[in-house]
Amino acid sequence: MAIRIVLAGEGGQGVQVVANILAESANAEGKEVIYIPNFGVEQRGGVSIAFVQIDDKRIGSPKFPKADIVVALSNRAVNRTLQYVDERTTFIYDDSLVAAAEIDERAMGIQAVEADPRSQRTTELIDESKVKDQVQLPDNAANIIGIPANDIAKNELHPRVFNIIILGTLLKATAVVPLDRIKEAIEAKLGAKFDKNPALRDLNYKALDKGMSLVERLV
Amino acid sequence: MSEKPVKGERRVFMTGNEVCAWAALAAEADIMYGYPITPQTDIMQYWTRLAPKYGRKFLQTEDEISAGFTTVGGVIAGKRAFSATTGPGNTLFQEPMSMAEMMRIPTVVIIPQRGGPSTATVIYSQQEVTMTTYGGNGEGFRIVYSTAGHQDLYDYTIKAFNTAWKYRFPTFVLGDGYQAKMREPLTIYDPAERGIKMVKTEPLVGLPGTPGIHRPAQYLRNTYNTEEELYDVVMEIARDYEKAASEIIEWQDFDTDAEMDVLILAHGVVSRSAQGALPLLKDEGIRAGHFRPVTLRPMPEEQMRRAAAKAKRILVVESAYGQFLKLVKQSLYGMDKPIDTLLRPGAGVTAEEIVDRIKEGR
Amino acid sequence: MTREEIALAPNMPKCWNAETKPHKFCPGCGHGLALKMLGEAIDELGIQDKVVFGCDIGCSLLSWDFFNLDSVQTHHGRTTPVITGIKRARPEIIGIAYMGDGGGYAIGAQHLVNSATRNEKVTAILINNTNYGMTGGQMAPTTLPGQKTETTPYGRDPEETGYPTLGPEMVAAIAREGAYVARGSIANLRQLKKYLKKAIQNQIDGNGFSFVEVMSSCPTNWRTNAENTWNFVEKDMAEYFHVGEFKVPGQKEEK
Ligand SMILES: Cc1ncc(C[n+]2csc(CCOP(=O)(O)OP(=O)(O)O)c2C)c(N)n1
Ligand code: SF4
Ligand SMILES: [Mg+2]
Hints:
The structure holds 3 protein chains of 3 kinds. Chain A is α/β, with parallel strands linked by helices. Chain A has one domain: 3-Layer(aba) Sandwich (Pyruvate-ferredoxin Oxidoreductase, domain 3). Helix content of chain A is 36%, strand content 17%. Chain A has 7 helices and 6 strands, in the order βαβαββαββαααα. In chain A, helix 5 (162-174) crosses helix 7. By secondary structure, chain B is of the alpha/beta class. Chain B has 2 domains: 9-194, 3-Layer(aba) Sandwich (Rossmann fold), CATH 3.40.50; 252-360, Rossmann fold, CATH 3.40.50. The radius of gyration of chain B is 21 Å and the shape is globular. Bound molecules: thiamine diphosphate, iron/sulfur cluster and magnesium ion. Residues 25-26, 29, 31, 59, 129, 133-134, 218-221 of chain C line the site of iron/sulfur cluster.
């Protein structure tokens, strides 16, 4: 079965890491996968977007108009991803009280910027109260699910494992890859660090569990 | 020789740029010349990390004119030399590539197309079709493979070296920013283990023996004195090109055996959207087929015409404002087929958009 | 920003376009400092209505709407000829070409050399940040020996890729009487502004080609924190590149 995922957040929230681990584990599972990191204007807008498609057969176009699952991790990411939502989409957003810091959009330049998407530039944080666009959740999605990932990360675990919570949520929601594969991919990325500091392994797997507990299987 | 970079067969999950670097290594490319430009730069960056481990070389030049001419030089010296560029860099490559065309120098250049004209975007397009097939002050004596994904990038980068050296025409692997930057699975392999033999390279200068004593000196020229002289030279290249064309052309067709309501013509990554559109169209009760030329130069004209003959209408889809369309019209000249278009310069096309376009046209 | 806010904005040169601030360079980038000095120089010379500003493709392109000046984005390496074309057609215009070290010393080197030899009455400003900033940190002609970049992952080996280009020294050597050539640094802004002002005045006076290289920073691609960024500019770069005036009209050359 084909599944199309859009994952968006502020630069620095680790959106690409999550997409990468998901894509890599699906590949390890023998699936067809296309993962496009930060593409288009988005890459310069301070919002980082990942497009992931997973399928049993060869995938058509790398671009897709509507997603099965959209995960938006900041107010601006919500606004940016509305275009990928239709009546079949499950829309997952972070409804934490602790809002994600946003980056001044004007500080990121124009579309013609020559930069390599990998070299995400860092810019100063701006005052949340100055963000004019308020969150407007989609009115056409099949499901809208708010998860307090930021709160959980900050209050119960550690802010750094925020993206692992999201990974858990995605994993549960899509059920496209078995947990073991994800763990293998995490180990491949972070195993060395875990070995040095076993508490870190614990923390990450807790975050993964926590993320999985936040949603039901959706697809 | 040092160890083989790719042994056996291996399923990998990487970006298209990384694929190109590995393919060039597997194809026993000796040296890369290049100048940074997004979204090509990663090919160079992988190459600069990998090449020294396998005894291969690299030179970062001062610009693309120089990258093109140093590649020409590398080939003249008898090495499997290549480069990669795109966009305004591809524009600058036209001067050296026209020298390669005239002097039958088998350069290989990988081109992940970006938006144009001018600096435009670093993202994606199919707007370098005209320039890559017919750029320069020449006749388009070039070979252009338009790839649709990572397996293609691997296969055709390897093949490009062989086609170039066998037929002695500058050869291009025409990809795009999507393919360059996205990751998808593919199988990389040692060409030898699949029975692919790399065509031997040979130097055009620096041959053994003293010129004038043991052998005649090599005089490589691109300048001629009279109209007649030039005419003969160009016509000889043209004859060689026409002769080789039937051996070089490659294409794919999908559901083109039966009568069709519409035949979708698309190349490169857009072909994947066309392939994706076929089952959707079937659900709508529309009989559709798809023809994809893999080589844009030479163009598989006969094959395209055969497919077109069975369709009521043609739909040309591309991420450019009619560059592929021009090649199609040239190929289908004289056929009485209405041609519709979905032209999206510098922007991607999805299967759904193709379906919508066909439904709207009915 | 409202008018009041603009009026209150501290230290913003008058010729800056407040609408496009904060600017788009990375934090700690030297481009912003150089452009601030350029802005002040333009203000002090009172020429905002006469300048045409050309920017190269490179991080300099981020300055395309930076000033309240008529501005044109050109191609990578081609800013000097575009500004030269404008100047030749309309000599009353004060033409400023703003570019990176890749743009000026690699792809556009021939234009720099030939504009200098023809003594074109334009002002070229070049930001030396020892790499290709915008494309993600590849080797530039100015990359220091041993410096790691994306295309010299094992460090720049001068045997393979030569030594860093000494731009002002080269331009001074080929330019004729009337040319103004200097190298400044973001580590000495007062001096930098003085050079920039003289370089523009030299064009206004119709003397000849004016060229200022600016030693600058690129913390994003250098992957340096604030302290190491300044160390790199003030120590590592300064060891190789020397600030000063290399050619001043009417001044005997001291060798
Ligand atoms: C003909 C051409 N080749 C390559 C590029 C890609 N490109 C854009 S900016 C750049 C390098 C910029 O470096 P530099 O001039 O040093 O400016 P910086 O970003 O460091 O300020 C390159 C290679 C291009 N736009 N056009
Ligand atoms: S990449 Fe470097 S030169 Fe470009 S804006 Fe950032 S710090 Fe400045
Ligand atoms: Mg630079």
